[in-house]
Amino acid sequence: MNRVKRQLNFCQSCKIKSQRLFEKKNCIENFSNEIFYEIFDYLDGYDIYKAFSNLNIRLENLLINSSLFMKIEISSSTILNFHYKQFLKLNKHHIISFDFDSQLILEKFMNFFIIDSLFSRLESLVFYSISTYKLLIVLFYLKSLPYLSSLSICINNCSHNLGDIYQMIFHLSLKYFRIAVPRYPHLCITIPITAQNQFSSIEYLLIYHRCTFNQLINIISYTPRLSHLHCFNIIESNSAMKSELMIKSNNLTYLTMNLCNIEFDEFEEFLLNFCSQLKETWIDFQEHLHVNQNSKNNINDSSNPYFSLVELNVVGTFITRIEASIIDKINPILITTKITYLNIECDRMAIFFN
User: Fold this and answer.
1) pLDDT tens for residues 216-238?
2) Burial class of residue 298 (count of CB atoms within 10 Å of its CB; 0-12, 13-18, 19+)
3) What is the pTM of this model?
4) Which of 11, 125, 213, 339 has the fewest CB atoms within 10 Å, measured from its CB?
5) What's 307's domain CATH number?
């Protein structure tokens, strides 16, 4: 009887120990620091602070550890009260990104803070709506941020020469830059071709505003490291393209363009004189594409040793009645270049070459 009782006690003891061990392994407090930081990576910095501060010593230490990185999204619903401002003030060295979703909340933020060198680990900034006046103030201080590599801006009131803004941008240590200027059909973009040694570190450039090929040539003359270029509203220029001033890009491999009422020869000349190492190209022709069958340029000229597209995609929306001209113009490229896939879409008609 006693032996049976001892066996039952032993089994119960083992069960209790196993249950405790299971509970210990599955308790959130027993997660490794690395797991906590992975979880934090999906959360807003202030939400992390509210959820995990004042719980226990271990979590408190996690929040002050130098390995903690915080991403901050400040929306129009964010209340910049005393506690929020104290949180930002005490965690400047933890913040790696800011997202501002409106001009109003940005102005409220700038009443209390300047994005300067005290945000010593800041890597990314997104302004979904900002005036040129506020942007110029912000850019002045961004020069003091050594780790800033990504900047996205949407300008809501463009009252300044965009060329000046670009030149300030090119003095930053960026790898990614996205600029949008919606609802402004006529912009002032005066920017000279770069002087020697005035080069930007930008590798990804996304331009969402109207510009001509000449303006684009001047802009990208500052970006010799450029590998991805997205330009979504190239318009007709009043002057001839300054192809003799182009600096050939040896790193550009991906190109996306939206062309509006452009001569195909102008686009062709841009490719031949600037884009030497393209691997993939997406072109969207809006409104009318003018094709000159007697072009002096020849994109498929075998004497050009640099032009070696791997994939070319051409999409047209309002170019019926000239489909044959486009096909005649582009078809020889397949023979004399390294294109493996060509997709042409004209209104409701799609033609595929393999």
Assistant:
1) 989 998 999 999 999 988 888 77
2) middle
3) 0.79
4) 11
5) 3.80.10
